[in-house]
Amino acid sequence: MLDIDGSDGGGQIVRSSLALSMLTDTPVRIENVRGNRPDPGLKHQHRGAVELAAEVGDADVTGAELGATTLTFDPGDVSGGNYETTIGTAGSITLVFDTVLPLATVIDEPLSVTVGGGTDVKWSPSLDYYRRVKLPFLRQCGLQAVIDPARRGFYPTGGGRARLRTAPSTLAPIRATDRGERRHIRIYSVASEHLDDADVAPRQARTVAQELPTEASVTERVSTVATTDSPGSAIVVAATYENGCGGFTAFGERGKPAEEVGSDAAASLRQFDRSGAAIDEHLADQLLLPMAIGGGRISIPRVTDHVESSVELLEQFGIECRVDDVGASTIVSIDEPISGQNKTGSRR
Predict the structure, then answer these.
(1) Structure pTM?
(2) Which residues are catalytic?
(3) Domain range for residue 328?
(4) What are the RNA 3'-terminal phosphate cyclase domain coordinates in residue numbering (predicted)?
(5) In a domain, 306, yes or no
(6) Residue 346 above 70 pLDDT?
């Protein structure tokens, strides 16, 4: 059994460890779960991810309780089919999806996962980021997955619902180092019906369009009003390049004008443009698991804490990840992925 220190990296260490455990058929024991957080141990979102992984991966699990700081996970045969879980709070639906998304490469049948919780909450990929930035990029690399949104969920109540559907996939190496020219900018703004009279969603989108670089042209601008349990808003600016992509998200807060929300997202895009990197810093750590499966080489603006902890985790599973500073960007490479090793489920 592989022992993993979960004190650094937060819930990401739990989710990625579960995914890698199933991908490599390696039992794991995670200790000091979220130990460096003010409230250590498993929270609702993490427990939901563990329960889902246990069901999909036919795993033996101990420690899957709220507040638990030690978790063991011994995977069995991974299988497709239809699964459903509810977080019970505004915990991130997309982060739960991350636990099972890579399994499309080791399952020979479709997988459908429906999760209830938060769709647009801080410290996680928003629903539109996942749908409009992450998944389109991964589909280009061979991972077949889509999201069907059913209901938005904002903090603090949540109440959102979405379904992830995957098909058997073979990942090609992810190559994104020289991003080339910008091709498209798309804006996706959403606000709850509580904010409809104030035109929050259109105001967020309009501000982004006004504050983009002068040479940039918007190819799509969508403003949506959603029925939700809690008031809230979010915006995603999706930028695609010849060989790269970036997504830039901002969330509404009580007392924060819609124009400020839009301005924050536009500022993040301008900063990324100056970096010269091909992949935005938030997508960077999310691509390391797919790269661990199929290999690849990407340029990122900087090594974030999440990238650093993900690299260390991959090395514990025997996957070497090279990080090199090249000019203003950083190159992350995986030359020997697990795609050549024995994998779980029906492909073993």
Answers:
(1) 0.94
(2) 306
(3) 276-348
(4) 9-317
(5) yes
(6) no
